[in-house]
Input
Amino acid sequence: MDSIHTSDRSPHAGAHDVSGFSAEFLRLRAGSVLCWLATVDDHGMPNVSPKEIFCCHGERELLIANIASPQSVRNIKAHPNVCVSFVDVLIQKGFKVKGAAVVVEPGHPRFGELEFPLQQMTRGAFPIHSVICVQVLGTEPILAPSYRLVPGTTEDSQARAAQAVYRWPRP
Ligand SMILES: Cc1cc2nc3c(=O)[nH]c(=O)nc-3n(C[C@H](O)[C@H](O)[C@H](O)COP(=O)(O)O)c2cc1C
Output
């Protein structure tokens, strides 16, 4: 896994904006409806669950809203190491992120700052009990095998194929 500053090998590689995340990372994050947060419990048992309310913050933080994630929060409090992945399901590219997470609760000096961008995403529709704040240590691109194995695969062809697989729009 590459460090955040040398994170991807896309055509945009090297083009990092001030946030520290690459342009390719930000593009694919914006196109990904869900991320999947992987944690581990006290017995080493893995736990993965989807989160829709997530965003990049500052130089190297990934924020996830704890709206209904009791197990993830319990696990992080015991074991901070997490893996988060997201994929734009149409173009079928995404990223894997590894890092150390903390659960930032109301009353913490940074709670307001970290809750704000997530609140903007929900427009206040859901209560955010706490913010899972991941210090990103490394990122790695995720790519559908077709891009490497099927000559002529483009983002457009992949999106057309995905639409057919997902049967969308539905008849
Ligand atoms: C499409 C979708 C989006 C979700 N987004 C979030 C979210 O942003 N934050 C959250 O806390 N839970 C979210 N959930 C709910 C959790 O994934 C769900 O409550 C899960 O059981 C939590 O498990 P955990 O405690 O192991 O994290 C979402 C669920 C779905 C299906």
Summary: The first strand starts at residue 35 and ends at 40. The two ends are 42 Å apart (CA to CA). The chain has one domain: 4-165.
